[in-house]
């Protein structure tokens, strides 16, 4: 028996996880994830176990795709040298070892020299830019960061023990214990970035982002070996998605978006930049907090627009194709009796890439648009003329860009 077959056989007795597997062509399989290897995955979709080559898998989803990821209250944020982001309910550390406890990751220990920065205090818009700049510094000394009003300051030295009560700093050959409640964060001296191939990126409901080199299904959960070299076990109930796209594709819902609204029909009364709730653009949920329905097909990943909406995305010329499926949302009660039509216009750097009418009752339209060289992408959903604006809801399912 081959080593791969043996590995898969052993994994088949491990903890099974309910999952949604999305392939590179958009096909979705829902079932029990039984095994993951460097070459393939196995999923029991109810009609027997299916084996998929890993290079055909775009992502594996767990739980509700639209669920908001939130760190634990008063979470400590760790950024590792490999780019992974962890959130811990508790953290202690020595110069050699850092210990954390996390709902998603359980109790874990990792070498302190894998940690690039630790943030103890909540960040807000007044200091977020300063913290991002400071935590990205290439410094020869450790930095103990203190917040002073709307600014951040630091003392450079050698950070020693981090306990629940204090953070120790060796400064000018003096050891100082600073009360932890006064410490905003710690930035360690520049770490050497680990090397290796990323198999996938895993995100959890605690907003953890893990750069994974190897993934397997075990009796304890999803076992992830990070590029940094540490192995963490993720409770499948806290996992959200394992992205195997490796940056080749990205959902528009994951981009920052600039949205502009124009009054339409019955909501044509003047309003400020805060559009009425019925017109607000949404990602991965409709107006009534449900999944998107297009011609009786149900989608978890989508953009939801009301007419009068323009959404602008910065692609930075990094992508070649825009893909997805568009149609009129069939989920709102009472809307199916309306002959709803909207105009969809997609513009790249001021040039019209697509202009089409989307109508209720028509088959959803599959889009595959060339966006190579495009810096700024606009999606405009327009009312077709003098209408009431009622039920003019366009869904853009599986809206994504590919490299």
From TrEMBL:
InterPro entries: Galactose-bd-like_sf, Glyco_hyd_98_carb-bd, NPCBM_sf. Keywords: Signal. SUPFAM superfamilies: Galactose-binding domain-like. The keyword Signal applies. The keyword Signal applies. Residues 263-403 form the Glycosyl hydrolase family 98 putative carbohydrate-binding module domain. Residues 1-16 form the signal peptide. It comes from the Bacteria. Coiled coil: none annotated. This is NPCBM/NEW2 domain protein. It comes from Maioricimonas rarisocia.
């Amino acid at each position: 028996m081959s080593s791969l077959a043996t590995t898969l056989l052993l994994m088949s007795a491990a903890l099974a996880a309910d999952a949604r597997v999305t392939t590179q062509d958009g096909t979705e399989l829902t079932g029990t994830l039984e095994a993951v290897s460097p070459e393939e995955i196995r999923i029991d979709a109810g009609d027997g176990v299916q084996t998929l080559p890993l290079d055909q898998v775009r992502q594996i989803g767990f739980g509700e795709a639209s669920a908001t990821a939130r760190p634990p209250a008063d979470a400590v944020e760790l950024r590792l040298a490999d780019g992974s982001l962890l959130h811990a309910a508790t953290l202690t550390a020595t110069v050699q070892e850092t210990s954390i406890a996390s709902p998603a990751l359980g109790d874990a220990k990792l070498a302190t020299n894998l940690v690039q920065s630790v943030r103890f205090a909540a960040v807000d818009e007044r200091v977020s830019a300063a913290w991002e700049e400071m935590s990205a510094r290439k410094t020869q000394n450790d930095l103990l960061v203190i917040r002073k009003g709307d600014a951040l300051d630091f003392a450079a030295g050698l950070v020693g023990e981090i306990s629940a009560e204090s953070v120790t700093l060796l400064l000018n050959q003096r050891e100082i214990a600073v009360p932890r409640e006064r410490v905003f964060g710690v930035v360690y001296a520049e770490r050497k970035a680990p090397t290796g191939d990323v198999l996938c990126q895993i995100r959890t409901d605690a907003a953890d982002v893990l750069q994974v080199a190897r993934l397997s299904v075990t009796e304890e959960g999803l076992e992830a070996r990070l590029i940094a070299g540490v192995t963490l076990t993720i409770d499948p109930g806290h996992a959200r998605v394992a992205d195997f796209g490796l940056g080749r594709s990205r959902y528009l819902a994951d981009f920052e978006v600039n949205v502009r609204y124009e009054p339409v029909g019955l909501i044509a009364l003047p309003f400020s930049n805060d559009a009425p709730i019925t017109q607000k653009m949404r990602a991965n949920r409709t107006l009534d907090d449900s999944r998107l329905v297009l011609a009786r097909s149900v989608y978890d990943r989508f953009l939801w627009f009301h007419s009068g909406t323009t959404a602008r995305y910065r692609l930075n010329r990094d992508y070649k194709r825009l893909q997805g499926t568009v149609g009129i949302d069939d989920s709102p009660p009472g809307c199916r009796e309306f002959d709803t039509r909207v105009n969809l216009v997609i513009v790249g750097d001021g040039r019209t890439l697509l202009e089409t009418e989307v109508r209720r009752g028509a088959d959803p339209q599959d889009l595959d648009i060339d966006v190579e060289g495009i810096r700024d992408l606009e999606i405009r959903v327009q009312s077709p003329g003098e209408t009431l604006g009622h039920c003019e809801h366009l869904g853009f399912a599986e809206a994504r860009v590919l490299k």
